[in-house]
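Sequence in, structure out.
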Amino acid sequence: MIFPQSPTNMNAQLTTDEINSVQQLLQQYKPADKAIDTVQRHNGNLETSFEELWVEKNGMLAMPKGKKIWQTTLDVLRDELCGDEGFRARLSDYTKSPENAVLLTATITSLMALTAIPLDPSIATILVLYILKIGLNVYCKCTEPADGDTNAGNLPPGK
């Protein structure tokens, strides 16, 4: 179950076949059930699914105008994931054996262990599916701070 990577579609959406494939693959990983159910309800839209699960788990956040929790989370994760060879290796292992549920589960749990953001397994599942959909290199490039943007990827102090 390797998704065709679509670097032009940063608002990644899973197809029905991809959702069914993930559901089949992760049927023994019960924490993913909620993520998959949410993705199905939102017709494969990973951003909307993430935001619903985030609000359910953490409540609404007062975000600065024009900012979304989805993009802020992706920006913050960039610093933790893009330079981590262990995460890159786990992702690579899975993409070499996409039928291996243990490798996908290990990638999800690796994401949760690496980040300073409190991620529940359903939220981590959504994020891993997104990174698989667009590719880690594309994710890292697209969340790279623009020249002169010193605040990109950083949450406000105390958040």
